[in-house]
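WARN retry 2 of 3 for item q-0093 after timeout on previous attempt; input resubmitted unchanged.
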Amino acid sequence: MPVDANTEHFELSFALAFGGAKSGEVLPDAVAYAFDVTGGFIAQAPVKGERAGLTLPRRMANQTVRLFIGPPMRKAVKPTVSAVTRLGAYEMRQRVGPDLEPIHFPIPDPIWRCWFFCECVVTGQLVTTVTLPDGSSQQLPVCNSQVNICEVWAWERIIPLLPDPILTRLRDEVVAAVLNPIPSPGPVETGAGGLAGLALRTAPARAAAIPPLRPPGSSIAARPRRTAARSSAVQAPSAATLDAATFGQVSALARSASADEIASRLIDLFPIYIDWFCWWDWLEPWLYVDCFETVQTDDNGNFFATVWYPCCGPTPNLYFSAQQLQAGNWVTIYDPWVRCGTWWNYACGTSVTLNVTDPSAIPCYPPVSVNPPAGADNWVLVTAVGGAWVWGNPSGPISSGCLASPPVGWLQPDGLTDYGSVVGAPFGGYLGFRSGASISIPNPGMMYYRWSYRANGASDWSYMSDTVVRHYVKETPPALPTFPVEVMGPMTVSGVPYLYMFKPLNAPPPAPSDPPGTVTYWPTDDLFADIYSGYLDTTALPGGAAATAGLYQIKLEVFDASANPVVPGPTTFSFILPCYVDPIGDVTARSADPSELDTDGGFIFSLHIDNNPCGANIDPPAISGGGVVDTCGFLNYSSTANAISIDFEATQLNGFATFGFEIIRGITDVGYDASGYVWDTADGVYTAPIETGDFTSNGLTVGDLLGSCVNGAFAEVLNVYATATTGWGDSITAYDASFVRAFALAAAT
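OK item q-0093 returned
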């Protein structure tokens, strides 16, 4: 039976010569690699002494093979040409065959001495910056993610590969930037600056208030790909600050003509102009990247890896990208431009902070540390609506350690909240309600809870019914972890509907079908938006926005394992509320006031809801004597003393909006602007009757608008901003309105 030629093999032998090696000198570990001319991997074998042998398939006989001798791969992965090249392997191309004599493979001294590798520990944290309800910002870790660690080729290696037009352009850009100083270069990633050390950010402190998180179903603008996370501007030296030697080098570069001379000088001057890389978008395609490691972040967004680099050379230039597991898919959340996000000559062991700007990234939420009032061993904390802490409406004095009144960003007793510069804002949209419980809950005596709501003055309660889940971690090594969900409710127990289970102390155990060694556990923080215990879509309340606007009561109740209501008391539990949050996020709590409880023992607080949109309109301008703008937008005047009427309407049904109005002549703001709340009564030269929200100019003349001009073109711009919020320190922009009107004043002829 004939033998299939493709199944036969032949041996290829090497006689290695390590140039410059002294007798008895320790040689580095080495491996022989073979690839076909297209880069396809064929075989590998360790080098023993100064001999090596490879077993090649018969089909490679009389074919040219790319042979490499280089350091061993640090992982049991299939070698690639890119990977072995990055390790510094030395290449020879050879036509091979079964009758070939051992190949003499000389390896130059500078090459093999760089095969001794040094360890480089890479540590870092993936974070995102969020805005808190009080207007401050806070860095929070991004967990449930993977970070790709890549090496950007050394500049000495990239420069010789640049085509002459790019090389010449780089010369001209460098000379122009250094010898003719320009303003501060584009903002770059902290740590992506010059070679003389990296300015690294410190790990963020714990949040001093509840960190914001968009609720499920909310609208999040898609992040443009390749948006760098940047936090500082790095200024490269200008000609005025260069020493004489460097100035001479730059001047010499300007006079360089040959490609070799330009390349050599650009390599020498690299530390001088690296800080302008982020400005030069045309340079991006020429920054070559090899990605060689993917690591998981922990629950605090931290990651760790050990990489290796030739001891004879500088530390690697590292570039990072990251993905987060969202709804079962890996979603890219961090991928800055290479020219902006590279950590040049990374200082091994220092911490890299990767600041994610993608709004779709889900931050990790450190668990709230609660200091309950004395005697409250079993407690349920009524925490927040979105990011607005619930103050409640205590009738008596506040206990020791508490603030005397609710601060900015908290839910006030009247159901409104403040954020930033906005005062008295209602709630709207899709709301998430937050609560917590002591570690002793759940237990048979306190197993379930229920959220209810009703319009102020109504007798019947309606129940929140959206599904609440808790994600947990399932690890089945060596596979990546998965994140199943445990449904907390709603459920009907003993005929009582819309109950939700308190989060158990332990996550669900592995299923019988899971492989041995599988473990499950709750994450140490509230990732996946698992910070809510109830949801209410206020836009779906029956009757529409106008009919449903107003004050509501929200109630939280507790039930035992048989679905019987549990009344707070010395032998059961206590409702507690936050009354102070210290700078590191620890909560001091007070006991609920009896006046805040109903007869069934449920805790009640107020919430003002208003989903009404804003309105904006600008009336046609008119001047005294009856002149109005014509169909072409012109308004003719006979005297600059003519009074001119500028009228507009900024409205929201219940006044929960702010507005901004301005008049622009050409590109100049003429100064007759107005801003404030729709329900304000006066602002500058404009009056605002409360019942209409109609603003009318008083005493304005044609000359006031024209200034020194005889004729003028104008734009009236009105923006009306709803103040309704989901509790996360910003407004619901979908309810905003705007209006623009253009007109021209022309002298009558």
